[in-house]
């Protein structure tokens, strides 16, 4: 298949491009910079210049492809409304280009905000509906196109997609621990996160693209629930520094913007996902990655 990938030079997207090409697919990545374009071309992927606001490029990329994987997001923490607007417009554009084709459309989505008090399961419907909701309601918007001949596959990602070079949440936690001289967790540290290794995530996206039926929700999680205290303890062991509780009121000052996320429970089961696609994670755990130096440059 010729697969158009947005976010193709990002942390997860670049691994997906590699996975697709290793499996014999042709990957074409959206590149907003010359550096991204060179990186894609160097590995033998096709390049389409543009960004999330260039709806014409998105439309062309989808129309010329046999499948679309949408991973890009502005992640503008200072202006989330702008991120939500751009995400909704991009999903609407990509989905419309695929109407009536039955081609796969894989859409990245977060686990946060789905349910409270238990791990989310694949049958849980996202409460985010409409342009003013989280990520512009893009998950439900994409699924609305199933009845219009689009093979939408929603991929809900764990808050930590880890591995050497990860610049996500855990990277900032390790950076905060270095700066503060202690590895902190918030309150009693009982909040929990799911996690998945980057290689396992990329393989699951490729399997979903190849096999998942229209309307499938995949949970990209290997470890279902790791306490935030356990994450802090792994960081403490790696850096050989004390592990301490941080008062919730001091979380932002201690951790920076990631503090609000570290206080949340964001977990999900992937039991149905594993059964549906015969997916078995094989990568290292989050603690193993931390303790073997995956975040050495954090």
Automatic annotation (TrEMBL):
InterPro entries: Epimerase_deHydtase, NAD(P)-bd_dom_sf, NAD(P)-dependent_oxidoreduct. Residues 3-82 form the NAD-dependent epimerase/dehydratase domain. Pfam families: Epimerase (PF01370). This is SDR family oxidoreductase. It comes from Actinoallomurus oryzae.
């Amino acid at each position: 298949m010729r697969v158009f990938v947005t976010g193709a030079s990002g942390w997860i997207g670049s691994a997906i491009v590699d996975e697709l090409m290793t499996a014999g697919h042709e990957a074409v990545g959206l590149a907003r910079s010359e550096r991204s374009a060179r990186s894609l071309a160097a590995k033998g992927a096709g390049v389409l210049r543009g960004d999330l606001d260039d709806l014409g490029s998105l439309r062309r990329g989808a129309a010329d492809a046999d499948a679309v994987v949408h991973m890009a997001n502005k992640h503008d923490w200072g202006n989330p409304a702008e991120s939500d607007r751009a995400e909704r417009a991009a999903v609407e554009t990509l989905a419309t280009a695929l109407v009536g084709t039955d081609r796969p459309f894989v859409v990245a989505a977060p686990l946060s905000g789905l349910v409270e008090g238990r791990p989310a399961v694949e049958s849980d419907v996202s409460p985010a509906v409409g342009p003013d909701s989280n990520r512009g309601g893009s998950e439900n918007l994409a699924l609305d196109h199933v009845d219009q001949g689009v093979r939408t596959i929603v991929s809900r990602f764990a808050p930590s997609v880890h591995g050497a070079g990860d610049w996500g949440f855990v990277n900032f936690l390790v950076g905060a621990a270095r700066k503060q001289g202690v590895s902190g967790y918030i309150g009693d540290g009982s909040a929990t996160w799911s996690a998945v290794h980057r290689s396992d995530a990329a393989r699951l996206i490729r399997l979903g693209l190849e096999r998942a039926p229209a309307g499938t929700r995949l949970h990209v999680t290997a470890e279902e629930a790791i306490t935030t205290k356990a994450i802090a303890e792994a960081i403490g062991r790696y850096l050989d520094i004390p592990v301490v509780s941080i008062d919730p009121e001091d979380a932002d000052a201690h951790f920076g913007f990631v503090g609000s996320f570290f206080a949340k429970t964001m977990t999900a089961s992937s039991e149905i996902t594993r059964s549906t696609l015969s997916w078995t994670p094989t990568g290292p755990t989050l603690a193993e990655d931390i303790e073997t130096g995956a975040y050495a440059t954090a």
